[in-house]
Amino acid sequence: MTADPLPVISCKGLTKSYGRRSALSGVDLAVAEGDVFGFLGPNGAGKTTTIRILLDLIRRDSGDVTLLGGDPRRDGVRLRRDIGYLPGELSMTSRRPARELLSFLAHLRGGVDRRAIESLAERFALDLDRPVRGLSKGNKQKIGLVQAFMHRPRLLILDEPTSGLDPLLQQEFLNLVREVREDGRTVFMSSHVLSEVQDVADQAAIIRAGRIVALEDMDDLRERALRTVTMAFAEPVDAQDFARLDCVRDASVEGNTLTCTVEGSPDALVKEAATRTVLSLTSEEPDLEELFFTHYNNGRGSAPQEEGSDAGA
Ligand SMILES: Nc1ncnc2c1ncn2[C@@H]1O[C@H](COP(=O)(O)OP(=O)(O)OP(=O)(O)O)[C@@H](O)[C@H]1O
């Protein structure tokens, strides 16, 4: 048996205050190599503060941080080469075209194949020849993403990466994240809502008021998820034939149509259905967001009671 490899990101007991305002009160995180990790939380929860501490852009008050086996304070030069970082707030005021800005950043990272920049720009429909200054928020975000991905870093730390992207580009971004994961590289990304990361994440954590209040393995969550399945058959069916299956709940039949709820793998249901002629099948995607929050609100997590709720997380 081999020991688990060291996490790519490890924080223990991270605290940070801005003056008398506490932003982080003991954050623990461990992100495994090759994982996509969703870091979720409402506005002001501490996501950006955590990310900035990871990258040594601000100093923690206490706690330990290890990144790619190094110390962000001591090994900054090496880590910057191995990490792609997208800040939450991009300040880009240059009159020069995006191409020049990206070439400059590529140079700082020891050189990047020009084709990598061109190909990323094409995927994000980014015009490299327009001056950066006049670009929209979404277009600036695209530059931010290109510079984070272009040097094929081992670790990507992305602060609200889909902010300002239209739905098609959000999908393109998620495709890119999948490719990074297939490469065995690691992505840590923050978001307000689970739905933005659920299709690609291996793990997701929620931070609230400076504390981690939930941590979930996304495969486990999907396993537990319920989905509603409707099947129309060529001839009448008996609800009992389906209700007896372990994965099926609440089976009911109207005419030739079966409606039921499926927990976990639908394999047994599909096999039972396949002994008849199936005319149509619909399966509603499970609402993982609801499951995620129901789960930890039901006592598993120790979420501090907060006023109101913010954007789902
Ligand atoms: N430079 C600062 N000076 C004072 N307080 C700050 C500063 N930066 C953050 N804070 C406070 O620290 C807390 C955590 O903020 P942070 O930006 O880390 O949250 P966040 O989860 O990234 O929020 P958002 O989703 O809105 O970006 C908030 O209460 C915020 O007001």
From TrEMBL:
Keywords: Antibiotic resistance, ATP-binding, Nucleotide-binding, Transport. GO terms for molecular function: ATP binding. Belongs to the ABC transporter superfamily. It comes from the Bacteria. CDD domains: ABC_DR_subfamily_A. Its main location: membrane. It is a peripheral membrane protein. It is found in: Cell membrane. This is ABC transporter ATP-binding protein. The keyword ATP-binding applies. Residues 9-234 form the ABC transporter domain. It holds the Pfam family ABC_tran. The keyword Transport applies. InterPro entries: AAA+_ATPase (IPR003593), ABC_transporter-like_ATP-bd (IPR003439), ABC_transporter-like_CS (IPR017871), ABC_transporter_ATP-binding (IPR050763), P-loop_NTPase (IPR027417). It comes from Streptomonospora algeriensis.
